[in-house]
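Sharing a chain and its predicted structure for anyone who wants a worked example. Both blocks are below, sequence first, C-alpha cells second.
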Amino acid sequence: MTEPQPGDFGLTKIGGLAGAFVNFGQWFVGDFAPIQHALVYVGNGMVVQAMPSGAELIRLEDASPVVKWSTGLVDLTDQERVHVALEALKLVGTPYSFLDYLSIALERWGVRPTWVLNRVISSKHLICSQLVVEAYLRTGIELFPGMFPGDQTPGDLWHLLKDLETND
C-alpha cells in the first residue's frame, strides 16, 4: 500500500446496509466497483469525508480501511497537493444528500429532469465522491473533464484510477 500524501484521495469499502445500498446503486447505474466510499487525505494522519451527518475531519485510522489511493496515479504538484487539502478542509460541515444518488441514476439513464439537476446544484450538498471531485475542481483540476462535477460515484473514481494504472 502506497503512503498517501496530502491531496490524495482514497477509496474504501464500507459494510452494513449503507455499503450494500451504495453497491446496489453503483451496479444499478452501471459503474459497479469493489469500493463504496471516497475520502481526501489532508495530511498529519487526517482525512475529510462526506457522511450522512455532514462532511467531517477524522483520523485516517478511524476511517474505513483504504483499498486504493490516488497516490502516484493522479499527478499533483506540491502546491496542488496543499490546495486540494485546504479545499477539502473548507468542505468540513457540508451537508449530505441522498437525492444526489437519485440525480446520478437519472442522469445515467438519460431521464434527469432539469429541476432535479437544479436542486442538486442549489443544495450545495455533497456525497463522498462529489466532495473529492469538488476539492480537486476548486484547485483547478478536473478529474472528469466535460462532466457535471456532481455526477460521479465512488465507482467512477475507482474506474478513473484503474484507467490511469492501465495507461502507465
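Comments welcome. DSSP finds six helices and five strands in the chain.
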